[in-house]
Amino acid sequence: MGRTAYRGARVRRLEDPRLVAGRGAFTGDLSAPGLRHAAIVRSPLAHARVRGIRVPAGVQVVTARDLPDLPYLSGEIKGGAVVPHPVLAVDRVCYAGQPVAVVLADDPYAAADAADRVQVDYDPLPVLADPEDALAPGAVIIHDGLASNVAYRRHRQYGDPDAAFARAPIVLRQRIGHQRLAAVPLEPRAVLAVPPAGRRGRRLVVWSSTQMPHDLHALLAGLPHLAGLRLRVVAPDVGGGFGAKINIYPEELLLPVLAVRLGHPVKWVQTRREDLLATSHGRAQVADVALAADRDGRVRGLRLRIVADVGAYLLSTTADVPTLTTRMATGPYDITDLEIDLVEVYTNRMPTGAYRGAGRPEAAFYLERMLDLLAREIGVDPAEVRRRNFVPPERFPYRTPAGYVYDSGAYARALDRALEAVDYVGWRRRQAEGRQQGRYLGVGIGSYVEWCTYGEDRVRVQVDTTGRVTVLTGISPHGQGTATGLAQVVADVLGVPLEAVTVVHGDTARIPTGEGTAGSRSLVVGGTAAYRAAERLRRRLVDLAAAQLEARPEDLVLADGRIFVAGTPERSVPLGALVARTGRRVLWARAAFDAGEATFPFGTHVAVVEVDPETGQVQLHQYVAVDDCGVAINPLLVEGQIHGGVAQGVAQALYEQIVYDRQGQLLTATLADYAVPRAPQLPRFQAHRTETPTPRNPLGAKGVGEAGTIGATPAVVNAVMDALAPWGVRHLDMPLWPGKIWRAIRTAGA
After folding, report:
1. Neighbours of 248 (CB within 10 A)
2. Edge-to-edge strand order for the sheet containing 150-158?
3. pLDDT score at 4
4. Is the confidence at residue 1, as pLDDT, over 50?
5. Contacts of 59 (CB under 8 A, 6+ apart)
6. Secondary structure element (H or E) that encloses residue 283, with its range
C-alpha cells in the first residue's frame, strides 16, 4: 500500500470514455415536455431603419414591440462611450445578423421555414464596414448621441520614447494587421429555457452552451420579467468555446423571458451560418508600429498606434481585449521606453470579443514581426536578436514599463531548447543549399510571454460513506480536460484512486459562485482552490482517524482510499467508514483562492516552411513548440492545449479570415468560404516544455490554454517572410493565402 501520486502524471482524460461513446449531454441534445423551437429573424442589412414587420398568417412571432421593457445588453469599459445593445432590434439594425424577431414552432425546421416568411421593411442607412473609414473626418455616426464612432481611447507613455527614437541609429516602421477571425467551436451556441410547471417550485431552468453560467445567472436574476422566480443556470457538456462563449448574447436573455411569458419550454440551437454571422469575432486590429534600436540589435524604444474594430456594440469581452494588447506590448523583452495609442472604433459589423489568446497574440505578433525586420536590417540572426533583448532570469520579478510584474521567467532557455529541438543550425544549412537549387525554405521564430489567470474560485470537496469524493467547482470547462486535472489534484491530496473522484461544474444550483473558464485560469485558480479544500478535508479525516487508530496525526498516511499508520498498513480505516462513524452522509471542506496577481507563462515556437514560387503555396515542414506554464498538473493535457492552440494559430497565419464587403455583408458565411484547416494541412507538432514555477500559487502552475495561438502566428509568418527574403518581400498581412504570396513575388520581380 503506497501513497498515490497523480499530480504531474500523464493521465488520460476521465471525460473521454463517456463523450466518445456518444453519452454526452449537450444543450442541443436536451428536451422537455411541450417544447417549442425558436428561430431568429436576422437583419440582412448592416445598417438600416426598421419600418415594419409583416407576419404571415399562422406564424407565431415575437418582436421588440411585444417585449417593450426587455432590458439592453451592454459591455462596460471605464471612460468609454458605451451604447445600449438591444436584445431585439427596435427601430434600427447596426450589423448584418442582428436579431429582429423570433419565430416559434413545434419543430426546428418549421420554425426556420416560418422565419424565412417573415418580411421586414428596411430603410437602408450608410454603412461603415471599416474602422478607419469610421474614424475619417465627416464619417457618419453609427449611434445616436455619440460625437464620433470612437468607443474608447487610451494613450500611454512610459519612459522617454521621444529621446529613445531621437538617439537610435535605426528606426523601423511597419503597418501590421490582424484579420477578423471566427472561433468556430464544434458545438455552436444553444439555449433551452424551461419555465416552472404551475406554481410548484417556481424554478426557471436555463441550459446554455456558455463558458460563464454564473455570469448568465446574475444577469437573468436582475430581469424584471423573471422577478419572483428561483433560477438555475446549467452549462452541461460544452463543445468548445475559445473565448467566444464568455460573452452573454441576446438569445440567452430572450429565451428565458419567452419561456416564462408563454408558459412552455423554448429551445434555440444555432446553425453554423448563424455562428459565423452572429457569434463574436476575434482579433480585428491594425497597428502602425515603430521600433528604435542600436546597430547591435538592442531595442531602445517602441511605439504602437492600434485601431481596434469593436463592431456595432460592446459584448461582455469586447472592450477589454484590445487593452490586453497594450498590457503585453513589450513581451519578453527589456524595453523601457514605450508609447501606445489605442483607439476602439464602432463599425457596422458583428461585435468582436475574446478569442483564444484575447489581445496577447496581437501584441506578440506586432513585436515578433518587428524583431525579424530588425534582424534583417542589421544582418544578425533572428534568434540572436531575441536573445540580446530578453529580460534575464536574475531580473525577476520583473516590472514592465506599464507597471505589470512578471512572476518568473527563463526566456533564453526556452529559445535554446526550441532551436535544438528543431535542428535550427541544420535547417539554416539546408535553406542555403535549397536556394541554390530553386527551393525556398524559411525558418521562423515566435517568442512570447502572456498574461494569465484572474479572479477567485470557491471549491467544495466532500467524501461520502462509500469513499467517493466529489469536487464542486465554479470553473466551467468546455473540452480542455479540466475535470481530469482537478481530480488529479484532489486525489493526490486525499490518497484516493483517481476513478473515485467526481468533478461537478457548470450548475448554479449546486455551485453558488463561479467565474467560469477564461484566461487560462482553470487549473491555476480552480486547481489551487481545490487543493486548499482537499487539504482542509484531509486534516479533518486525519484527526478522526488518529482518534480511531490511537495514533498521532503526523504518523498517518492516506493511500488507496484508506488511512493507515506509517509502517503498519494493517492498522487502517477506509475513508468511507470514517465518514459513516460520524453519522453523516458526507464530510466536506470548502476553500477559496483569489489569483490576485496574474501569472506570466512564456515560450518559443519555431516553424519551418517551404514556399513554392510558382503557386504561392506554403508547406509547413516542421513545427516545434517549447512552452513554460510553470508546473504541469498533467503534461498530456498541456500537450493537448498546445496542439489545439497551434492549429488555430497556424490557421490565422495561413488560412482563416472573416471577410465583409463594403456594405457590411459577410462573404465568409459558410465553412465552404471560411477556411478552417484540416489535418493533412498541419504537420505533427512537437511539444516540449521547460518548467519555471510561479511563486503566486502553491501549485506553481501558470496556465497554458492560449499559449499555442500566441507563439504560432509569428513563428509561421516569420518563416514565410524568411522564405520570401530573396525577393525582398518585407511584410505581408495574414492570412498568407497563395494568391497573396504569388502576387508579392511577381511584384517584387517586376
Report:
1. 21
2. 150-158, 338-346, 299-311, 281-293, 170-182
3. 62
4. no
5. 103, 114, 117, 118
6. strand 281-293
| pLDDT value of residue 3 | 57
For residue 146 the three cell numbers come to: 455619440
CB contact at 8 A, 450 and 600: yes
How far apart are alpha carbons 603 and 625 in whole angstroms?
8
Given a cut of 80, whether residue 12 has pLDDT beyond it is yes
Residue 185: phi and psi, rounded to 5, are -65, 150
Closest CA to 193 of 183, 201, 204, 184: 204
In DSSP terms, 42 is beta-bridged to: 99
Please, what's the b/e burial string for 98-118 (b: 16 or more CB within 10 A of its CB; e: otherwise)? bbbbbbbbeebeebbebbeeb
Look at the alpha carbons of 24, 25, 28, 29 in this order and tell me if their dihedral is positive or negative.
Answer: positive
Which three cell numbers mark 92? 434600427
In the chain, residues under CATH classification 3.30.365.10 are 16-23+453-594, 360-452+598-749
Residue-wise pLDDT tens digits, 461-490 = 999 999 999 999 999 999 999 999 999 999
Query: What span, in angstroms and rounded, lies between the C-alpha atoms of 425 and 423?
Result: 6
CATH of 31-125+184-278, one of 3.30.565.10, 2.40.160.20, 3.40.630.10, 3.90.1170.50: 3.90.1170.50
CATH class in words for 16-23+453-594: alpha beta
Fold of 360-452+598-749: Aldehyde Oxidoreductase; domain 4 (3.30.365)
The 3-state secondary structure of 217-252 reads: HHHHHCCHHHCCCEEEEECCECCCCCCHHHCCCHHH
